[in-house]
Amino acid sequence: MQHRFPAIIGVGRTKFGEHYERGHEKLVEEAWLKASDAAGIERKDLDAGYFSDYFLQITNKVGIEEGFLSELTELHIPMEKMRSFSSAFLNACHAVQSGKYRMVLVGGVEKMTDRWDKIKDDLMLLEDPWSYYAGCTPEANHELMLREYIKKHKISRENFEKFNAALAQISVKNHQHAMKNEYAHFQREVSVDQVLKERSKVHKPLGLYDFAPISDGASALVLASPEVAKKCTDTPIYIVGSSSATDYITFPSREERTGFIASTMAMENALERARIGIHNIQIAELYDQSTLLEMVSLEDLRFSKRGKAWLDVYSSCKDYKGFYEINGRKLFVNTNGGLKADGNPLGATGGAQVFEVVKQLKGEAGDRQVEADGDLQFGCVLEFEGFGTKAYVHILRRD
Amino acid sequence: MSSEPIERRVSYIGDRLRGSRCRICGKEYFRTRDYCVVCGRRSFGKIEDADFFYEKGMLEVCTLIKEPTNKFTKLGPYLYGIVSFHNGKVRVPGRLTDCILKEEQIDLSSFEDRGVVPRFRRRYAVQQSDIIPTISLAFTFADEYYPHQKHGIVKPKKEYETPGITGYGVYVPRFRIKEGPMERSVPFMDEDAITAAVEAGKMALIHSGADPSLVGKVYVGSESNPYAVKPIASKVAQVLKLGEEERMDGMQGVDAIDTEFACKAATSMFKDAAALVYYPGARTPHAMVIGTDNSQAAPRDELGGELDFFVGYGGSAFIFGMHDVIAELESWYSCTSDTPDFWRRDLEPYPRHGGRFTGEPAYFKHVVKAAKRLMEKLKLRPGDVDYFVSHQPNISFPIKVARALGFREEQYMPGLQVAKFGNTYSGSSPIGLAAVLDKAKPDERVVIVSYGSGAGSDAYSLVTTSQIGEKRRRQKFNVQHQVENSYIEYVDYDTYKRLKLGL
Predict the structure, then answer these.
(1) Which residue does chain A place closest to B85, by CA atoms?
(2) Sequence-ordered strand ranges (E) for chain A
């Protein structure tokens, strides 16, 4: 079985942020050239392409993305366009695993800053039209989840300060990580005080520094069958478990509103496929659209106990050493800066998450390279579409 | 640009908060569906309609929205949260409306775990030429101005020989502006003549206990329909489910029509409604007449701007029928002349006057003529009338005309509501009538005389029945409740202008 795991043989990405002068084609080009270069392959080696973007049709009035890519690459291979990078990646994995293709390019791109004027509306309509009709914003769902969390887990008044600080520390930690990431949207530090100040400025439980930004960017990777991968690289990174799960579009109508059941289900399934336990995961890239989501994802994925993740975060971040310490084990989370500081160009975000885990597993993360206890072997990526409407988990392994 | 089919589908579900209930397991859904996710295929054909329009919800959690999506920016900061119905069987997203948040720092927990009532409102702002989007995912607190009231169908006890009013409702929002001796009702930003019509109709159905499916016709009189072409009555019929529901087609078996004759657009139809329910072949047990206006006025420094001191906002609805009548329609008299005292040309936003106030020969001539002729017809002297109500464009006209007709203060003061609500145009004299019916004892005579510029008057004589008292208990949201309420919020002139302009 092990030999059928598809492998990543090269990753590439652009810097995330505002690319005022560059369109989506230029961004995609940079990412896939870097990935191809890293993999040491030629265009003609590719059997197929899987791409992702959420909004190009809306933001840039681009219809058939595959046509642009065909023209850009001079390729006429089968290409498909998905919504998130993870869905493109998962489908590419299935295709390689089935034996249909031997080598596939997976890429994602987003140009969100081109439509600052209405990106919030588009994001909210994508998340859930009925919540939009009732006046919801993308941020409001996070705040409602926070209210639910506080109520359900009875965060007391005396603990409230610590709880708030823990959420702020997530942002601080991610900004710290991004300092070492040349591709990050924000390469600057923030302090707990700054995070709290931004909240109090608007009298809200979550503020500017709690939310991931609007970004442009692209990411890509080359996926190959294990046989091909071994010929291309000494350090193929295998996708040993990859899974997804789906939940209701309308957040209020879900039974569980202090986390995402889709995360839990996708993780359980992925672990089962990888035949490992949660304790084997040493590094994780979580989808921190907000500091709250990084925290609840620790619970959803079962790293932390229900209602206790904030305590794990708080105690780890008091004197932060570069990782969370949960149940006596090190867990490196969002070492690229997470969505908060690395940036969140939706269709490309998942690619940057995979990029980071691959770089870490290969020992090529430079200044960011983590120091795991023992060999760094397993990492995972969690990506969402919408507000937990879809969750994708990929477990990556280095032999 | 609006998408007509999307607007139709969203409004159809959202205006009434339509949902479904599984008859096997009892699971409920917001939004209609044909089978239950728990029971699967065996639940086909066992799903019944449920809607949450008359239900009381609970605001479970909420948050403050300061930077909304584009279409909500005009509202200013607002609360948004999760509302549950039936002890959590259904949860929906909802915006808190009728709330001007003044303080920067608010304690969210003070709003949570409180009962809320769905309100029919404009959904969000659109271009002037677009279809007006509406929804009932807007809520207000049940323990404040607008109480939750159950809606039930009451089996009629008695059939009358004379048609009359079987129930009525008045809707005025909680916002007021106070200038000089007058208080005037001010719509919240998401309100208009359409939303007030639905609210008033809802109150009338609650009060009458009439089966909405037996309402055969609805008339909506207004001079401030936000559409030049498209009836308010169709919205009222659909949202209130008037007439027999043709569910498969999403249609109502009811006739719905808008009428316009300045401020008498609604009262004119009282006799038509009464005649219709009386007509033996028509089989129309009930007919509803609504008067609704977001009364328009030009800015104060412009021609016609003097109206800006008098205009109000609100709606009233009266249901006519032959069963369980609370006030029989004894007789009427209407008169009309082509007097151009007040008009609004097509495409103009505000009405105009003929350069001076419209007293003589418009208001007084018509009101006096109609009242006198009606009283002559019935051989009535002022002393035979218990209450006199006339159209109320300001405080002085109705008092002057009542005195001229020989009525005393105790006869005309109970129906004089203009000082509390302002001139609600088509809803003006009907709100006065409602205020009187709220108080009247059985076997009392009410004379109401409307006035519509252009010009004409309708005079009616109504005699209350013994059932007026028992039905009164069904309506908490009566005129008095809306006049004396600790949740009334007074706004300054700038806020008034902003709210009045709307989304």
Answers:
(1) A253
(2) 7-13, 48-52, 79-82, 103-111, 216-224, 237-246, 283-285, 324-326, 329-333, 378-385, 390-398
Which secondary structure element, helix H or strand E, spans residue B419, and what is its range?
Answer: helix B418-421
The CATH number assigned to the domain with range A2-117+214-232 reads 3.40.47.10
The one-letter amino acid at A116: W
In chain B, the domains with their CATH numbers are: 4-17+52-141 (no CATH), 159-501 (3.40.47.10)
Contact list in B for residue A148 (CB cut-off 8 A) is: 60-61
Half-sphere exposure at residue B136, Cβ-oriented, CA atoms within 13 angstroms: 32
Residues of B in contact with A128 (CB under 8 A): 93
User: For B319-352, what is each residue's pLDDT tens digit?
Assistant: 999 999 999 999 999 999 999 999 999 999 999 8
Grade residue A1 by pLDDT with cuts at 50, 70 and 90. Answer: very low
Task: Return the C-alpha torsion angle A292, A297, A299, A303, nearest 10.
Answer: -130
Contact A82, A50 (CB under 8 A): yes
pLDDT digits (tens, 9 = 90+) for A68-108: 999 988 999 999 999 999 999 999 999 999 999 999 999 99
* Cβ atoms A378, A51 nearer than 8 A: no
Whose CA is closest to A103, among A37, A36, A53?
Answer: A36
Q: To the nearest whole angstrom, how far is the Cα of A78 from the nearest Cα of chain B?
A: 35
Cβ–Cβ gap A204/B10 under 8 Å: no
- Whether residue B93 and residue A124 make contact (CB cut-off 8 A), yes or no, is no
The set of residues, in sequence order, having a beta carbon less than 8 Å from that of B317 and lying 6+ positions away, is B168, B169, B170, B197, B200, B201, B203, B204, B288, B289, B290, B291
Q: Which residues of chain B have pLDDT under 70?
A: 355-357
Strands B456-464 and B327-336: antiparallel
Model-level ipTM above the cut of 0.90: yes
**Over 70: is that where the pLDDT of A240 sits?**
yes
Please give the sequence-ordered ranges of beta strands (E in DSSP) within B254-312, or none if there are none: 255-259, 286-294
**pTM assigned to the model:** 0.96
Does residue B460 sit in helix, strand or coil? Answer: strand
Helix (H/G/I), strand (E/B), else coil: B436: helix
3-state secondary structure of B326: coil
Question: What is the DSSP secondary structure assignment for residue B38, as one 8-state letter?
Answer: T
Percent of chain A with pLDDT over 90: 96
